[in-house]
Amino acid sequence: QLRGTIQLGGHTVGARWRSIGSSYNSLGYSSLPRDREGLRIQDSFRLFEDALGVTVGWESFDDNLNDTKNATTGTSALTLDLRWQKDATTPGFSVGLRDYSRENNAVNIESGGVQENTATYSAGAYFPMALLPGITSRLNVNVVTVGREDALNQLSGSQNDYYMIGFTNRFNNQPTEFSVTYGLNTSDLTGYADAKTTFNRLLVRGRHAFNQNLSGLADIVMTSAISPEAAGAYGLDYNRMEVTGGAEYYWTSSSFASLRAGYISYTDNRRMGFDTTQLVVRLRVTQGF
User: Fold this and answer.
1) Is the dihedral of CA 19, 21, 24, 27 positive or negative?
2) Residue 61 to residue 114: CA distance in whole angstroms
């Protein structure tokens, strides 16, 4: 692996070349992709008195480094991210684009052929506001759309759209904050009829810091999913609610223990015998080094 970063005027340009053989095994990162070689380049800079941040990236990788496969599959991606905010007290806006392709020269899917393209578009906005005396609030709105298609396999196409709106609130005179977030996600397997599922999610979260190390937490999460009736047993139609509370204790900035207890209720409206009720206790300990 070779990597480097240079400053060119107001630009920060980074590049990394990496080659990982098929026989390489990582003890610390077991899911590291192997049998890949390629280059990634990224340029970041700011304009309009630093109000606009721009990041542009490009990458290209190939597998089959030892010529042991029937076809060499190449992947490439082009990314663009724009972020605008004059200062911490003004609204901010963001736009993102990622165009990803994965293809080889095999003629059909039976011989391992792939001509996949995935386009991801995102947009977001956040607005600082003072809705109530003594509380600092921020409204967040985000939209993401992801479309995937493969010219050799029409059944693998998909379209996923995500919409989110949320309020984050913080008390000015005490270490308490709470948020309310609603998300809508539609997931459509475009190669099949009646394969669109709609997910709704409402999250209410609260946090209070008793001191520098100890905080109390409370969460309520309600989720529902529904598919067309014609989807039959392959579709979804359920409601799920999770209510949890607990505490976190930090002894360093990267080391903490978290204890949570709560209740989970799941109701399946399409399949008999899948309704469940659970009492849960979760303990997590993280030690940073």
Assistant:
1) positive
2) 15
Q: How much of the chain, in percent, has pLDDT values that exceed 90? A: 70
**Count of C-beta atoms within a 10 Å radius of residue 113:** 19
At residue 232, what are phi and psi to the nearest 5 degrees? Answer: 60, -135
Give pTM, 2 decimals: 0.86
Q: For tokens 């026989």, what's the residue? A: 23
Q: Is-contact 138 128, C-beta < 8 A?
A: yes
Alpha carbon distance 137, 144 (integer Å): 23
d(CA 156, CA 114): 11
Strand partners, 28: none
Q: Which of 224, 230, 258 is nearest to 244 (CA)?
A: 258
Q: How many CA atoms lie within 13 A of 158 on its CB side?
A: 11
SS percent in the chain: helix, strand, coil, step 5: 5, 65, 30
Residue 235 has pLDDT above 70, yes or no: yes
